[in-house]
Amino acid sequence: MTKTWTYTQPVEILFQSGIAGKIDDLLNQRGFTKGILVCDEFFLSAWGKISPKLTTTYSDIQPNPTIENAQNCTNAIIASDAEFVLAVGGGSAIDCAKIAAALAKSKQNAAKVFAGEESLAGLSLPLIVIPTTAGTGSEVTPVSVLMDAEEGKKSSIVHPCLFPKLTIIDPELCVSMPPDLTAITGLDALAHAIEAFWSINHQPICDALALEASRKVFEYLPTAYKDGNNLKARAEMCEASVMAGMAFAIPRTAGSHACSYAFTTGYDVPHGEACALTLAAFTRINCEAEEGRLHNFAKQLGFKDAYAMADRIDELKKMTGMRMTLKEIGVTEKDIPMLVEASKHPNLLFNPVEMDDKRLKELLEGLL
After folding, report:
1. Domain tally for the chain?
2. Beta strands in the chain (DSSP E)
3. Tens digits of per-residue pLDDT, 201-257?
4. What integer is the mean pLDDT of 314-324?
């Protein structure tokens, strides 16, 4: 069989401890003079003004950014007459800034793009991203995840124009992350990496990135969780986030992410924890696909086989205080049919084992 694949990664990535403090110099080097800061309220209160070039701020962003957040951010960017956008924070702030920077340039409507009534025009203001968490991967992907608050629907918008122009990774910014957020975002990175590997769209460059990202999470997440001041562990987790983001940007995620959206919108489970709820179960199921491929992946990470890797995922969840069962997040047996339907997200089609209603029901009931 002849292999055919492509790989694109247009994001300039600067990785260095302390580099966020040099943001003004970096803006000067690129000729930027007037921008808007998009961030969450916590960052705004903790850091305040970080550069005189950032003349306006938008910070009204909820943990799962909504269509309304995106439109309001778009309006703020247009009103500011900014020539660039700087997004600082976790995946929510970054996702909101990515779509808003594009909509502001093309003067499009967030609700219409989310609903598929309009396609993104392919334009965007230059976007600079500084993540303050390690795991979402949004800093290197062309993906923005938004939620329709009225419908309780969460979906991804994917377009090359959503790639940031520049991503600045400073591990020192992650030192302040509390243990629970460290675990949630770290497990999100692990889900990105493993799902990218088993996605039906997998390809060799992404496979290699997925393997190394997974290795870093398995090795360094326990330390980052227990000792947030360990800069070595923080740096390794930041690299894992970037590599996992690059790993799934093309193949996309699969079953665990498909199921996660219903847990987040219906039961208020943080995204990374929602993905982790089914990750070990999908690992055991997906051993059936491409016989030996997932086992080989696990062996390269030092496990006996993929089943042992799945056991280690469960151990990581227990170690970091994540919930292990659906009952713990409020799911009851009568909710299962609804969750089966809600899990039929487009990402489920990328899972290597076809997940029909019967398989989904068995998986979800097994996690009760």
Report:
1. 2
2. 12-15, 35-39, 54-58, 84-89, 127-131, 143-148, 153-158, 166-169
3. 999 999 999 999 999 999 999 999 999 999 999 999 999 999 999 999 999 999 999
4. 98
- 172: tokens are 């020192």
CB 280 within 8 A of CB 195: no
Tens digit of each residue's pLDDT (9 = 90 or more) over 92-132 = 999 999 999 999 999 999 999 999 999 999 999 999 999 99
Question: Does any domain span residue 6?
Answer: no
Is residue 251 one of the residues assigned to a domain? yes
Same structural domain for residues 246 and 169? no
Provide the terminal-to-terminal Cα distance of the chain, rounded to the nearest Å: 42
CATH code for position 153: 3.40.50.1970
Q: Do 238 and 145 share a structural domain?
A: no
Among 173, 208, 225, residue at a domain's last position: 173
Burial class (CB in 10 A: 0-12, 13-18, 19+), 277: buried
> Are the CB atoms for 305 and 298 separated by under 8 Å?
yes
The CA distances from residue 192 to 71, 244, 271, in Å, are: 27, 6, 12
**At which residue do the structure tokens 């339907």 appear?**
341
Q: State whether 233 and 270 are in the same domain.
A: yes
The answer on pLDDT for 1 being more than 70 is no
Mean pLDDT of 157-177: 96
Instruction: Measure the CA–CA gap between 282 and 88, rounded to whole angstroms.
Output: 33
Best CA proximity match to 163, nearest among 58, 8, 318: 8
Residues 19 and 85 in one domain: yes
| Domain range enclosing 92 | 12-173
pTM, whole model, 2 decimals? 0.95
**What token pair was written down for 170?**
């400073």
Separation of alpha carbons 71 and 78, rounded Å: 11
